[in-house]
Design a protein that fits this description.
By secondary structure, the protein is of the alpha/beta class. It has a domain of about 270 residues: Thiolase/Chalcone synthase (Peroxisomal Thiolase, Chain A, domain 1, 3-Layer(aba) Sandwich), CATH 3.40.47.10. The chain contains 13 helices and eleven strands. It has a nine-stranded mixed beta sheet, sandwiched between helices. A two-stranded antiparallel sheet has the order 5-6. A hairpin with a 7-residue loop joins strand 5 and strand 6. Helix 9 packs across helix 10. It is globular and about 60 Å long. The termini are close together. The mean pLDDT is about 95. Bound molecules: coenzyme A.
């Protein structure tokens, strides 16, 4: 039964997620954000001035640095929000768009907002190389260019690459390279089946990106660009990346562009506006652990969310754990199963049922809202139920949400 003070999701949409070489690679992440913000509002007939607080996640600052800063503020103004709109641009790595959602929930609970929007936007392929030191001049010698996408940059401050930590911790938990490859193949297969069944479609999760051309028809991107057919044999041949014992280009997600947006309000406000909620938010939590524990943090965050909701993992009909690598859903579900092989298998069977980031892509700041909406639309298709979605973010931060449909 829904309570009028419950906070509900009334609109949820994303762009397709691009491959590295893509027509989308030239579109600033700010403009991708504008597309989803406008569409999320249009679908429910809400005007921009009705959104009291907007939280905007993005976590490759070198990309939006091409437009200077405050990407959320720029996107709201470009999307036609009034100059008086409150927005916050935030970076909690891959967790960012769920952090945005959690802050929106807090704004509504605190009485600061009646309607809030969470946005995540990223264009990883557009990230320029950095040339530090040139401002003060270079008298002699070669100029060094930095690629902050390479190994995702944490090494410069002495941290391991995420792929190294995730792979090592996976092996310590008995999650082998073969298991990670099998999960990756399953992700591609599940996505292909879901797509063929019309589950990842325009008008529901997806809004197409239309790119005008100087001559001729515009390019229209209306589906995720990265899914591919693969075999266990082909996956087994790939070499590990970034010093990892197990992570390869096949069991990791690609580097993508994409954006997602979710609108929230109280159930009573939705009723006033005549809107049918897509989902009710039961709990939103964040957490963090030692950076090395990046593959375990989804489990820790899900446990915190379940405790907050007074529920158990067995009560969840669906689970989404972002495939930062295949290691994350495998290690985290194993931990949630408490080492019980039978329970582990049951949890895996309801995890990422339509595939995950390995197939769809992972435009980091946009992915957390993506897993939330993929799960909400799937629960709706099944006639309702409970779901928990969790994501890990740079240096072992976590964010999780429990929803009821
Ligand atoms: C892994 C990564 C380095 C690969 O980049 P890339 O080399 O440009 O990727 P490609 O798509 O060209 O794949 C590399 C090779 O693997 C192959 N490959 C990739 N996926 C495959 C699959 N599922 N099956 C078989 N082969 C596959 C490609 O065909 C390619 O082979 P080639 O070199 O013979 O052409 C990059 O995608 C990456 O950094 N991903 C991780 C992103 C990340 O860390 N996200 C955040 C997590 S916290």
């Amino acid at each position: 039964m829904s309570n009028q003070e419950d906070i509900v999701i009334v609109s949820a949409v994303r762009t397709p997620f691009s491959r590295f070489e893509s027509a989308m690679a030239d579109i600033p992440s700010i403009d991708l954000g504008v597309i989803v913000m406008k569409e999320a509002l249009r679908r429910v007939g809400i005007k921009p001035d009705e959104v009291d607080d907007l939280y905007y996640g993005s976590c490759i600052p070198a990309e939006y640095a091409l437009e200077t800063d405050v990407p959320g503020r720029q996107a709201t103004l470009l999307a036609g929000f009034p100059a008086e709109n409150n927005s916050v641009s935030l970076d909690r790595a891959c967790c960012s768009s769920l952090t945005a959602l959690r802050l929106g929930v807090m704004s509504i609970r605190a009485g600061e907002a009646r309607t809030a929007m969470a946005v995540g936007s990223e264009n990883m392929p557009r990230t320029p190389h950095l040339a530090p030191g040139l401002r003060s001049g270079k008298r002699l010698g070669h100029i060094k260019l930095i690629d902050c996408l390479f190994e995702l940059g944490y090494k410069s401050k002495g941290f391991n690459s995420v792929a190294l930590d995730a792979g090592e911790v996976a092996v310590e938990h008995g999650v082998t390279r073969e298991m990670q490859d099998a999960w990756a193949q399953g992700s591609q297969e599940k996505y292909a089946l879901a797509f063929a069944a019309g589950k990842i479609k325009v008008g529901e999760e997806i809004i197409p990106v239309v790119i005008p051309q100087k001559k001729g028809d515009p390019i229209v991107i209306d589906k995720d660009e990265s899914p591919r057919k693969t075999t266990l044999e082909a996956l087994a041949k790939l070499k590990p990346i970034y010093g990892s014992p197990t992570v390869t280009a096949g069991n990791a997600p690609p580097l993508s562009a994409g954006a997602s947006a979710i609108i929230m309000m109280t159930a009573s406000r939705a009723k006033e506006l005549g809107l049918k909620p897509l989902a009710t938010i039961v709990a939103t939590v964040s957490s963090a652990t030692d950076p090395r524990g990046i593959a375990t943090i989804p489990a820790q965050t899900i446990e915190k969310a379940l405790k907050r909701a007074g529920m158990t993992i067995g009560q969840m009909d669906l689970i989404e754990i972002n495939e930062a690598f295949a290691a994350m859903p495998l290690v985290s579900t194993k931990l949630l199963a408490g080492g019980d092989e039978k329970v582990w298998k049951q949890l895996l069977d309801k995890t990422n049922v339509n595939g995950g980031a390995i197939a769809m892509g992972h435009p980091v700041g946009a992915s957390a809202a993506r897993i939330t909406m993929t799960m909400a639309y799937e629960l709706a298709r099944r006639g309702g139920g409970y779901g928990v979605a969790a994501i890990c973010g740079g240096l072992a931060q976590g964010e999780a949400i429990i929803i009821r449909v």
